[in-house]
């Protein structure tokens, strides 16, 4: 487990991590600005901006800016996640079922255990159980940004694991949203959404992808899914899954999925997710006393313990069980403390966790404010614990990287990849 992938795949992952790092830093900036503004003397201006509504009422799209960010911009984020997930399982190293089993099992464990922890804290019948899925999500951009800052020399296998785990986690989270947080389903609109989705799929499968043809179909699909009662971000994942990964003809160059990913990822990481973070993270804490009051809510405590304890046990535990009861072995270069460090990093939940909190308790409600405090506090504690563990391990892997660089024969491909592939 966690062995090096191919040189081509490892290079692609490194490029992807760099892009996610920039997006993560922008996300953190947006969240910090929102928190400062929401707790400043000008907090009413922030609330007025977040709640300002725009859009055609006749199409049921007269939404607040905060809702547009959650329903609209996050659909772009999930479109990229759908592209990435499909590419990993069709053309990436994870097309091998033995490789795919690890991040899938870790993602499932990393969702089930936090949910159980949350339920254990909120088994009281006060309505808190509706938020059971809040601590189950790992934020890709946030986690990768923290990883880039605290530990840049971890083995490629662990980095790939974190990225794939987070993508699978997002897919499972959006599935949970579709099935458990849809109050009033309108089947007719959902069936109508299949028409532009099918046309979109037909065009991309035939490699016909001018923006003037695809964008209207994508927007129509999004609008109909939104009208159906299913959360509109599901449309982004479905659109991403329709895009072909493998090139029709042999030759150099990326496939269509990778091409579209390169085009849309900067919009997702640089605009969609930071803007959502800006509108979602602006919770008025009310000083230390207000923070203490928020953390007395069992919902907030369930989120904190779910993210910090549940995620670590779920991810590391499922990985250990896979190694214990199958033929999978931990790569010789790694120690189990590395896995625990990455599992702690998986406890950084932000984008999807805040989204589920809004769906569970209502945007702007008192309990939604407590959810935001719980998500922020839990993510911060998980990041700090992961920092302690991974920074200690970083020294060892930095020395190993220096040795490998000295042994490189300057042909552009590190010798360790040539030895493995040869």
Automatic annotation (TrEMBL):
GO terms for molecular function: sodium:proton antiporter activity. InterPro entries: Na/H_antiporter_dom_sf, NhaA. It is a multi-pass membrane protein. The chain crosses the membrane at residues 21-39, 59-80, 100-121, 133-154, 161-181, 187-203, 208-224, 230-246, 267-288, 300-323, 335-361, 373-390. GO terms for cellular component: plasma membrane. Pfam families: Na_H_antiport_1. It is found in: Cell inner membrane; Cell membrane. Keywords: Antiport, Cell membrane, Ion transport, Membrane, Sodium, Sodium transport, Transmembrane, Transmembrane helix, Transport. It comes from the Bacteria. GO terms for biological process: regulation of pH. It catalyses: Na(+)(in) + 2 H(+)(out) = Na(+)(out) + 2 H(+)(in). Belongs to the NhaA Na(+)/H(+) (TC 2.A.33) antiporter family. NCBIfam families: NhaA. PANTHER family: NA(+)_H(+) ANTIPORTER NHAA, SODIUM ION/PROTON ANTIPORTER NHAA-RELATED. Na(+)/H(+) antiporter that extrudes sodium in exchange for external protons. This is Na(+)/H(+) antiporter NhaA.
């Amino acid at each position: 487990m966690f062995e090096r992938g191919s040189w081509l795949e490892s290079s692609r992952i490194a490029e992807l991590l760099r892009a996610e790092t920039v997006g993560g830093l922008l996300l953190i900036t947006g969240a910090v600005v929102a928190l400062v503004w929401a707790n400043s003397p000008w907090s009413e201006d922030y609330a007025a901006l977040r709640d300002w509504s725009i859009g055609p009422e006749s199409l049921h799209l007269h939404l607040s800016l905060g809702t547009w960010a959650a329903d609209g911009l996050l659909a772009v984020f999930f479109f990229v996640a759908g592209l990435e997930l499909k590419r990993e399982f069709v053309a990436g190293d994870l097309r091998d079922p033995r490789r795919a089993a690890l991040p899938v099992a870790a993602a499932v464990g990393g969702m089930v255990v936090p949910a159980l922890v949350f339920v254990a804290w909120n088994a009281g019948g006060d309505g808190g159980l509706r938020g059971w899925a809040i601590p189950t999500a790992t934020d890709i951009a946030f986690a990768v940004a923290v990883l880039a800052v605290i530990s840049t020399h971890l083995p490629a296998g662990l980095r790939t694991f974190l990225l794939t785990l987070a993508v699978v986690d997002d897919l499972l989270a959006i599935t949970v949203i579709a099935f458990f947080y849809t109050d009033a389903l309108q089947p007719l609109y959902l069936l109508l959404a299949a028409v532009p989705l099918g046309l979109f799929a037909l065009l991309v499968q035939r490699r016909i992808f001018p923006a003037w043809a695809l964008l209207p179909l994508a927007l129509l699909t999004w609008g109909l899914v939104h009208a159906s009662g299913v959360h509109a971000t599901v449309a982004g994942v479905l659109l991403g899954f329709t895009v072909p990964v493998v090139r029709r003809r042999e030759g150099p160059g990326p496939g269509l999925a990778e091409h579209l990913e390169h085009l849309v990822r900067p919009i997702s990481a640089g605009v969609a997710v930071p803007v959502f973070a800006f509108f979602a993270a602006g919770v008025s804490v009310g000083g230390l006393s207000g923070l203490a009051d928020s953390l007395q809510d069992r919902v907030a405590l369930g989120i904190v313990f779910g993210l910090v304890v549940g995620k670590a046990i779920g991810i590391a535990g499922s990985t250990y069980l896979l190694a214990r009861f199958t033929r999978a072995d931990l790569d010789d270069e790694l120690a189990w403390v590395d896995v625990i460090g990455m599992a702690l990093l998986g406890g950084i939940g932000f984008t999807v966790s805040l989204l589920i909190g809004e769906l569970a308790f209502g945007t702007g409600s008192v309990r939604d404010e407590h959810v935001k405090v719980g998500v922020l506090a839990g993510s911060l504690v998980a990041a700090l614990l992961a920092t302690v563990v991974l920074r200690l391990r970083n020294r060892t892997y930095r020395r190993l990287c220096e040795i490998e660089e000295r042994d490189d024969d300057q042909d552009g491909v590190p010798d360790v990849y040539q030895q493995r592939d040869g």
